[in-house]
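Run log, item B.
One chain of 147 residues. Sequence copied directly from the ordering sheet:
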Amino acid sequence: MTAHCGLTTRFKLSEPPDTYLGVVVPEDVKAVWSTWDGVEWRRWRHYNRGDLYLPDQRFSVRLPAGMCVFHRDMWLRWRNRFFSGRTWFGDGFRSAYMAAADAWDHYRNEWDEKTIEQMRAVEESCLSGRSKQCAGQRICRKLPEAA
């Protein structure tokens, strides 16, 4: 178990490896490994290999510092949603039988992308200071900007 921003989690975010999918991980990418920029770099490694369906990267991102308790909980609820094949959001209820494995992977991949979009929207809303829903104290202090 590990603690971050007042949360105890059952998993530990991984340290950046020296290589990922056979590609040397640059130092600037290692510095942002547990952020959305790190996710984007990893996604492109999969695209460059020709992978159609990417692995879920939501659990590799750290909860951003400075979020209020309300938005932290919303961010975690989005992160913890999983595609079951029976539930769908965005275009109404979809309960299609997944006959082909690639259909399942396709919808799971769309689900992951929509979930990531929602996580990022919650972050932006809270950290921008524009949200009227912000409640409670900030759970972590923002790190000082590098000089």
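Observations after the first pass:
- The chain has one domain: 2-127.
- The chain has four helices and four strands.
Flagged for discussion on Thursday.
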